[in-house]
Amino acid sequence: MEYTGSYARARTRQRLRGGLEFATTSDTFVNADENQPLRVPSGKGTKKLNNLVLGIDLGGTNVRQSLFAVESDGALSLVESKNTRSSEWNDAEAPIVSYAESLRSRGMDPLGICAAVAGPGDEFGNYNLTNLGWTLSETSLRTNLGLENVWLINDGEGIGYGAMLACGNDLAEIKPGKQTGDRGIVMFPGTGFNAVLLFPNDPKNPQVYPLEVGHMGLSVKTPQQIAVATYLLSQGIDPSWESVVCGSGLARIYNCFMASLARKNPAELLFAPYTSKPSAWLEEKLTGPLPQEAISEAALKHEDPLCLIALSMYVEYWGYIAANLAFGFKATRGLLIAGGIAPQILPALRKPMFLKAFHDNRLAEMVSNIPVSVITNTDVGIMGAADYARQKCQLFVR
After folding, report:
1. Cα–Cα nearest to 370, from 166, 173, 157
2. What's the rounded Cα separation, in Å, for the pair 113 and 94?
3. Cα distance between residue 390 and residue 300, in whole Å
4. Is the pTM of this model over 0.85?
5. More confident residue, 385 or 129
6. DSSP per residue over 323-391, as a string?
7. In DSSP terms, which residues pair with 393 in a beta bridge?
8. How many CA atoms lie within 13 A of 389 on its CB side?
9. What is the 8-class DSSP label of residue 268?
């Protein structure tokens, strides 16, 4: 069974154009191209064509832009990248126009440009970067760039198109399974949380459908989960999927446990009494801007038992929500986890807690066959935007 994706080459070549292939001899994701990733970081040894596309990840913190050459079989090969801080610019168009002009001055005009934008958009190509208060429109960009082949997509769509390019070293398996049906799903916890549906069957016209699942209501099954939901409400936070699986969700779970200990209410915790104070370095980090990073580090190093318990519950939520997504959208083709958090906590995701939660429902038999992998390539959104431009420009589509 193949994960035929939008990038399927002719079967006679026995591989996909950077897409995921499901091995016919085993139930694990493999790279069908000699287990090598799609990216060619230096571009050396690869015959380049004069067909360039620019993929952009336009976020609230960074603007990451990568120029790719489209080879004769449609594969993408990296030419160069330029990364800047969003705070260096006054508006959303400036970094795109500046880099495009730099490329043009060096004779490397992209044939198409696609930016994956961290914010909502409308059917007319108008987007808002929520965290920066910037607006961006396809019409204005096309005018200022003097180029018609310019597209904006949601950052989730970029991740979805990039997910169909991930292969080999870009993936870390969590559980094997059998790919069936016509759709997969990608969930991506980060600053927030969301997911996209993938319909990869048509090689010439793959489909990615953004979902809005971050604010789905959080159900509870255990005393610990009741305690977390109650704590969230006490902090003025709506108990939702996003509230517990986003980056700050780990810190919220930890803080809930600390509050329960302060009340000396073991019924909420159901674990052995925890009496020691956090170590000095952990206590300092917990007051910093990213306490969740300190909590996960202490947990993975087994340096603090409460951090370990909090991380275990954190990945338990991931398992519950992953199963709900997989079943709710009949994503029997497979579930992928993208974003910057998953690779950092990969050892925890491979512990029994995630899989136990994934299978702990009335529909365990159905989800038990769904393969789950983490996308470890953090450039997946840029690659997806670039490949979207490739498709729209109809470069080497067969």
Report:
1. 173
2. 14
3. 40
4. no
5. 385
6. HHHHHHTT-TT-EEE-SSHHHHTHHHHTSHHHHHHHH-STTHHHHTT--EEEE--TTHHHHHHHHHHHH
7. none
8. 30
9. G
CATH architecture of 11-172+378-392: 2-Layer Sandwich (3.30)
Residue 141 CA to residue 96 CA, distance in Å, equals: 9
pLDDT band at residue 203 under the 50/70/90 scheme: low
> What is the CATH code for 223-370?
3.40.367.20
Residue 381: closest CA among 99, 58, 129, 137: 58
User: Which of 80, 69, 55, 73 is closest to 9 using CA atoms?
Assistant: 73
The two structure tokens encoding residue 318: 């991931």
Amino acid, single-letter form, for residue 69: A
Parse the chain into domains and list their residue ranges. Answer: 11-172+378-392, 223-370
pLDDT in the model for residue 190: 87
Q: Is the pLDDT of residue 43 over 60?
A: no
Question: Does position 272 have pLDDT exceeding 80, yes or no?
Answer: no
Here the tokens at position 205 are 């016209």
